[in-house]
Structure formats: structure tokens, C-alpha cells
């Protein structure tokens, strides 16, 4: 694939990952196995309070075609077929859920050194059509994300974003929720050697005049162990420690506490992912 500004979903992604990725208050366990023919199977179970959820994922790669299957506890089968490089920079994705007959969707992505485009259309009589595009380069990117419902003739989504990326700094400005929400985010890489970074995200909702501020940091204790912490203006503080006890196998323990109601019990989440 050509290097360039990426897709619209890549705007502010690294900052979102710093502030939100791997934090959880549930208990999750997954184990992956890979057969001789390359078929990877991953059963997983998640405990959310008193609710127990489970699913089985299977992935098979054959040259440029990747097939993903996911069967959940409600017997819904989600299928995703990805075809890479039908033409230079082009990726095609077909997805559908059985038995939902209206879930089918075809998505085409195109990557260029100065642009990234993604367009999708539902496989229904009156489908939902989505278009997102980004222009720029590895330093600056400007993009938009639009969805149109042909059954109602209305735009269900229109967003816009701008990002600046440097070796040690990333700054982004995004208008979401039909331009009702403005989010400004910032990430600074303090030390690439220890993966130390700090980040912040400020969101303002125009309709309610509400502001939300989240700040966070991460640091690698060693090549196998990392720490993360964050806090928001509502007083919710979270922290996690993640250890790779073998390549690709991770154990993550995270906790959350309401600093404005310290008498309440802290929430603790554990995730164990075992991979060959």
C-alpha cells in the first residue's frame, strides 16, 4: 500500500489509543490456535457484571484474500472477506451477518501518497451510503466522513477532521455529530525508547455547552511491560498494567475509581489473550 495520510478513521487514532485502548472493567479471556493450513481460531469469553458473553472467531488467509468469521452467543454469524491489491493501492471488503438480510455491505478503500478514500454501500433496496476521504501527506491531513440514507433521503452523519503529525507530536481537530461536537486532541512522545507519551483530549458539545477533558500517559517499564493512566474532569481515574509474558500473549489488569465518590468500590478488569 502507498504511504500517505491514511483513512479518515486514522485522524487522532494514536491519541485515542493512548487514552482509551485496553482500559476495561470486564473480565475477558481469549486463546488463539493456528492450524497447519493457516486457519486461526480464537474462542473468547467476557464477563460483564453478571452477564457472560462468548464468541468464536476464525480467520483464514489465502494469498491476497482474508476471510474472517465470528459466531457469537446469539448464533449470529458475521462474515468479512477482504481482498488486498486488486489494483495498486486498492482494498475491497465484503461483510454481512447471518441471519440479518439487511446487514450486507461492500466497502472499497483506496490508498495514495496524497489521499485516502473509503466508500461503502449497503446491499439493500434502499441502502445506507458512506463516503470518507482524506487529502494531505504524512504531516498534515484534512478529511471528511459522510453517510446518506437513501430510504429517507437524509444525511445521517457528516464529520470533518484536521490533523498534524510530526516525529514527536500529533495534534488533531475533529467536528463530529453533524458538527455539534468539537474535539481537540494532542499527543506528545516524550521518549521513544521507553514509549513514554502524554496526551489530552478536550471535547465541547455546542448544543448543551458541555465540556469533557481527558488526560493520560503511558510508559514502558521494560520491553514486555507497560503502564498507562488517565483521568477526566468528572473525576474518573483509571490505570492499567500490561505484560507480554510470551510473544503476542498479553495479560492486562486495569482499574477505575471515582475520585469524587471514593467510598464507592473500585472497578477492576482483567484481560488475558493467549496467542501462539
UniProtKB/TrEMBL annotation:
InterPro entries documented for this protein: Porin_dom_sf, Porin_Euk, Porin_Euk/Tom40
Places the protein is found: Membrane
Keyword Transport: yes
Main location: membrane
Keyword annotations: Ion transport, Membrane, Porin, Transmembrane, Transmembrane beta strand, Transport
GO cellular component terms given for this protein: mitochondrial outer membrane; pore complex
GO molecular function: porin activity; voltage-gated monoatomic anion channel activity
Pfam families the record matches: Porin_3
CDD domains xrefs: Porin3_VDAC (cd07306)
Record family assignment: Belongs to the eukaryotic mitochondrial porin (TC 1.B.8.1) family.
PANTHER family hit by this protein: GH26960P-RELATED, VOLTAGE-DEPENDENT ANION-SELECTIVE CHANNEL
Function statement: Forms a channel through the cell membrane that allows diffusion of small hydrophilic molecules. The channel adopts an open conformation at low or zero membrane potential and a closed conformation at potentials above 30-40 mV. The open state has a weak anion selectivity whereas the closed state is cation-selective.
The protein's name: Voltage-dependent anion-selective channel protein
